[in-house]
Task: inverse folding
């Protein structure tokens, strides 16, 4: 079962509803952010809350103290007895346009937060890798985590063997429907620069970890025409960590099997996350950090 915070209380998600007048419904005005809780503790809360606030401000939503409130809702919600997975769950925070469109500004937003089970990709996907479908489309407002995923969803509708579409306007590889993209080519890891893609929270951890462990990382978009020379590719995101990519359209990546770089970065990332969750524990005990930092 999943729970949702809306209008001052936590309830079963199916008991929560938005008024039909909310501009999220008629105009697609809304942003969101997903983070994960582990045993009641949020991972990378500040990074996610910063991005949520930036997304909202960029589309003209007057956030005020909404993000501070959401932070408290998450901290409290993860500790509730009815929190799914005993606080090991996915937390999806939404800010919608509300009912008022004032010359393209949204002065009275609504917010709600859903706590639900995490559905990680099946083990088989990590063992065998996934396929992506390139498209020449691009994401509208790439630095905003908008609720509108229609452009990308339509690109691979009905294709059961494809994980997600891959945005490649003019042959430049940016990101997928909902993940950051990386390619390992000639000893360097390439990923598209910020500004052209969403600032993925996992993306930035992976770049830092890769550099720390001796990989060369260049924030420059790889091109579709470079992929035949790639020995590995992978995508990253909150609900997949690091997932190997073995095919893009008709192009097989490397030998068609997941490689050692993505496997190592997956392990390094999970170890880093565990260390950081433990460090937060320790600092709280020492009274150095407020509970949500
Ligand atoms: C959510 C999302 C990501 C991944 O971001 P994380 O913070 O790593 O979960 C990447 N690209 C797009 C378009 C997204 O919507």
Result:
């Amino acid at each position: 079962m999943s729970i949702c915070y809306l209008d001052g209380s936590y309830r079963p998600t199916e008991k929560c509803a938005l008024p039909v007048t909310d501009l999220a419904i008629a105009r697609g005005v809304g942003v969101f952010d997903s983070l994960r809780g582990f045993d009641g503790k949020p991972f990378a809360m500040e990074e996610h809350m910063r991005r949520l606030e930036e997304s909202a401000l960029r589309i003209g939503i007057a956030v005020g103290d909404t993000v501070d409130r959401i932070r408290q809702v998450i901290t409290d919600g993860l500790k509730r007895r009815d929190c799914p997975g005993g606080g090991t769950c996915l937390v999806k925070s939404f800010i919608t346009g509300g009912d008022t469109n004032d010359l393209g500004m949204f002065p009275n937003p609504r917010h709600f937060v859903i706590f639900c089970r995490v559905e990680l990709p099946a083990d088989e996907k990590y063992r065998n890798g996934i396929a992506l479908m390139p498209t020449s489309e691009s994401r509208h407002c790439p630095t905003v985590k908008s609720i509108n995923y229609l452009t990308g969803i339509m690109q691979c509708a009905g294709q059961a063997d494809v994980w997600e579409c891959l945005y490649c306007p003019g042959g430049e590889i940016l990101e997928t429907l909902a993940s950051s993209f990386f390619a390992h080519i000639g000893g360097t890891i390439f990923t598209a620069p910020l500004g052209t893609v969403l600032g993925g929270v996992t993306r930035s951890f992976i770049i830092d970890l890769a550099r720390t462990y001796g990989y060369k990382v260049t924030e420059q978009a790889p091109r579709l025409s470079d992929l035949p020379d790639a020995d590995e590719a992978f995508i990253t995101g909150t609900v997949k960590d690091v997932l190997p990519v073995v095919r893009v359209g008709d192009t097989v990546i490397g030998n068609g099997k997941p490689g050692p770089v993505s496997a190592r970065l997956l392990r390094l990332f999970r170890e880093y996350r565990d260390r950081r969750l433990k460090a937060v524990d320790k600092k709280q005990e020492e009274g150095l950090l407020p509970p949500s930092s």
